[in-house]
Specification:
This protein has 198 residues and is α+β, with helices and mostly antiparallel strands. It has three helices and ten strands. It is 24% helix and 36% strand.
C-alpha cells in the first residue's frame, strides 16, 4: 500500500500546475507563429537628401553699372530702391540649410576713396569682428572682410572704379559646407566688369 505524504501531494500538485501552464503557453506561442502575419502600414514622411555638392553653373548679370556671373541656382530678388550714395541694388538668394544671400550695392562716392564709404569704415574700425584680407581681381587689389562672428560663410568685398564703388557681400550656410559659397564669391569677383568708363 502506497501512502503519499503531504509533501508528496504538494509536489504533485505543483507539477500538474506547471505542466498545465506550459501547455497553455505552448498553445498560445504555436498559434502566434502559425497564424498569417498582418501588415501594419507605417507612414514616414519622405525627406529629400541634402546634396553633397552643388553644380554652380554661371549665369550672367548685366545692368548699366556692372556685369558679373553668379550661380544659376540663385534667384533674383526685388531689392529696396537705392538711396544716395547708393545708386544700384542687386540681390540674389538661394534657399538651403539657411538662405544664401548675395547682395551687391553700387555707390557713387565723389572722392573715390573707400574711407568715405561708411560700410567699409564700419569694418575697418572693428578689426576683431571683421578680418581683412586682400585679393587681386583683374589686376587690382580688393579688400575682403570676413565676419568672424558668423557661424556660416560671411564675406564682403569692396571694388573701386573712379567715383564708383561696389560692395559684394555673400552670407549663408550650406549642408555640404562653405566651399559652394566660397566658389560663388570667387565666380562673382573673377567675372566682375564695370560697365561704362568710370
Amino acid at each position: 500500500m502506497n501512502i503519499m505524504t503531504k509533501s508528496h501531494k504538494k509536489r504533485l500538485l505543483v507539477g500538474i500546475i506547471v505542466v498545465i501552464c506550459c501547455s497553455i503557453i505552448l498553445v498560445i506561442v504555436d498559434k502566434k507563429f502559425t497564424e498569417p502575419t498582418k501588415a501594419t502600414a507605417v507612414i514616414i514622411p519622405y525627406v529629400l537628401p541634402k546634396q553633397a555638392s552643388l553644380t554652380l553653373t554661371p549665369k550672367n548679370y548685366i545692368d548699366n553699372y556692372v556685369s558679373f556671373d553668379y550661380p544659376s541656382i540663385m534667384i533674383a530678388n526685388q531689392p529696396q530702391p537705392p538711396t544716395l550714395p547708393i545708386v544700384d541694388n542687386i540681390v540674389f538668394s538661394y534657399p538651403d540649410a539657411q538662405s544664401w544671400l548675395l547682395a551687391v550695392e553700387i555707390y557713387k562716392i565723389p572722392s573715390g576713396n573707400l574711407s568715405d564709404n561708411s560700410s567699409y569704415e564700419v569694418r575697418i574700425i572693428n578689426p576683431t569682428t571683421y578680418l581683412l584680407t586682400q585679393s587681386t581681381i583683374n589686376g587690382k587689389s580688393v579688400p575682403i572682410f570676413t565676419d568672424t562672428t558668423s557661424s556660416g560663410y560671411s564675406r564682403v568685398a569692396f571694388l573701386i572704379s573712379g567715383n564708383y564703388q561696389a560692395s559684394v557681400s555673400l552670407f549663408g550656410n550650406d549642408a555640404s559646407g562653405t566651399t559652394p559659397l566660397a566658389n560663388t564669391m570667387a565666380m562673382v569677383l573673377n567675372s566682375w566688369q564695370w560697365q561704362g568708363d568710370y
